[in-house]
Amino acid sequence: MSTRLLLISDTHLPARARALPDVVWRAVDAADVVVHAGDWVDVRLLDELEDRAKRLVGVWGNNDGPALRDRLPEIARVTLDGVRLAVVHETGAAAGREGRMDSAFPHTDLLVFGHSHIPWDTTTPGGLRLLNPGSPTDPRRQPAHTFMTAVLAAGELREVDLVRL
């Protein structure tokens, strides 16, 4: 048994794009769990993902108003296939991130975050895996729109792929 994840963040709909790209919707359909690390902007995407995803884990971001904050936590924590997952929008500056997240998220195996729109994949000295999928709709200064897929199995993160659009 394994669990397929889709990791997205910073969709900023409809401010930065009118809709998620079709390839992202296909990834939603293929995933067992969709993880959204905030900055949805409009509650309609939350409604669409709740209707379409098999399971959704999401948080609000700094650009999300009361309608989203009423329905989503600032930090989400779940255990999936034996992996202790946390999701948060902001982690602060890149410098010192690993140490701060080790302290802020003890007893966590995987932390998914957003905010910067910059893909990130590191492991902290304490063994916490940090993943930022970037943005599928607003790459800012990045060369491509991005999202991530991952596979969990037997308590381990087995595969992580950064998908560039």
UniProtKB/TrEMBL annotation:
Keywords: Metal-binding. Its EC number is 3.1.4.-. Its cofactor is a divalent metal cation. GO terms for molecular function: hydrolase activity; metal ion binding. It holds the Pfam family Metallophos_2. It is an enzyme of class 3 (hydrolase). InterPro entries: Calcineurin-like_PHP_lpxH (IPR024654), Metallo-depent_PP-like (IPR029052), Phosphodiesterase_MJ0936/Vps29 (IPR000979). The keyword Ligase does not apply. Residues 4-150 form the Calcineurin-like phosphoesterase domain. NCBIfam families: yfcE. Belongs to the metallophosphoesterase superfamily. YfcE family. This is Phosphoesterase. It comes from Lacisediminihabitans profunda.
